[in-house]
């Protein structure tokens, strides 16, 4: 099928949504399949992670310098804390460690190789929230969703949302919330 891809296929997003259907097969056929097989993967911006890596590495090096100058406690605290920050940045930059997958049944959130799944029908609404001067996307669960009620109450009291995404995946919080609400509305009744 590599030859048909060279002749012309949909852009990357469409290839994910339509399974590499070529233009020769027709747009009508592709659009008929969108409700069943569409998926989209969003990845975090690497620039923010590279900045975290640079800053953390610099301060970890400063900690090593402080240790060599006899500042044991401050040096070790600085080295360990910022060394862990650099390690988190490195792991986050590895392929497949963090993403947001949207599918007809819901969204899979993956951060530092840990993942969890949220069904569209369990979400009431997505919206931008500000947490520690950083805009993120939060959501409230639907009235029919009863799991984790204590954790949801605590989260709502602290952040104003019952749950939230760890990243905006290179988009503004407003744009990402709008995109997620479109997917929720389109696929909310899917099993």
Please give a handful of descriptors for the protein shown.
single chain; 191 residues; alpha+beta; three-stranded antiparallel β-sheet; disordered N terminus
In words, what does this structure look like?
A four-stranded antiparallel beta sheet has the order 1-2-3-4. The chain is elongated. It has helices at residues 2-7, 12-18, 27-37, 46-68, 72-93, 149-159, 173-187, and strands at 40-42, 99-102, 106-111, 114-119, 123-131, 134-141, 163-164. Helix content is 50%, strand content 20%. The protein contains seven helices and seven strands; from the N terminus they run αααβααβββββαβα. The chain starts with a helix and ends with a helix. A hairpin with a 2-residue loop joins β3 and β4. The protein is an alpha+beta fold and 191 residues long.
Overall pLDDT metric: 80
What is the alpha-carbon Rg in Å? 21 Å
- What low-confidence regions span 5 or more consecutive residues with pLDDT below 50? 1-36
> Would you report the number of β strands?
7
- Can you give the helix content as a percent range? 40-55%
Tell the overall outline: elongated
H and E string: HHHEHHEEEEEHEH
Strand order of the largest sheet: 1-2-3-4
> Ends: how far apart?
32 Å
Describe the sheet with the most strands. Answer: 4 strands, antiparallel
Beta-strand fraction estimate: 15-25%
In DSSP terms (H or I, runs of 4 or more residues), the helix count works out at: 7
The class by helix and strand makeup works out as: alpha+beta
